[in-house]
Amino acid sequence: METNENKKLIRRYIEERWNERKLWLIDELVAPSFLLHTPTGDIDLSTFREAISGYLQSFPDSRVMLEDVLADGDMVAIRYTFSGTHSADFMGVMTTGRRTLCSGMAFYRIVDGRIAEGWFVEDTLGLLQQLGLDH
């Protein structure tokens, strides 16, 4: 798949799967052997689905705004801003009703037209501080 097609895939993955809540797109766009590398450890596709569900339950009006999308070969890098209203418990923080903004970056490796692997870093501490966690 060429670089522009890889960028289109990631844009669709974010804009439709996340912002339009077309969660079924995971089956189409993500490889069954998907592995996501995070600062707290690696997660497989099943755990990834659970994490997405958790975010959407806690921030039901959430949106991801793509700030940058860069690609080179089979790799696509994004910089984004996540926004949403904290409407249910999240990571041990009880519902606050606060509006949040959080920035992050991710890298994705595309194999045979599907997302095979990802690296993800988000300002989770900043997000939790917006929810009132101060230490």
**Biggest sheet features:** 6 strands, mixed
> What is the beta-strand fraction?
35-45%
Amount of helix? 25-40%
Identify the CATH class.
Alpha Beta
In short:
32% of the residues lie in helices and 41% in strands. It is built from 4 helices and 6 strands, in the order H-H-E-E-H-E-E-E-E-H. Strand 1 (30-38) and strand 2 form a beta hairpin.
Describe the protein.
The chain has helices at residues 3-19, 25-29, 45-58, 124-130, and strands spanning 30-38, 41-44, 63-72, 75-85, 99-111, 114-122. It is an alpha+beta fold and 135 residues long. The N and C termini lie far apart (45 Å).
Notable traits:
135 residues, Nuclear Transport Factor 2, Chain: A, 6 strands, 32% helix, globular
Question: Layout of helices and strands, plus pairs?
Answer:
Layout: H1 3-19, H2 25-29, E1 30-38, E2 41-44, H3 45-58, E3 63-72, E4 75-85, E5 99-111, E6 114-122, H4 124-130
Parallel strand pairs: 1-6
Antiparallel strand pairs: 1-2, 3-4, 4-5, 5-6
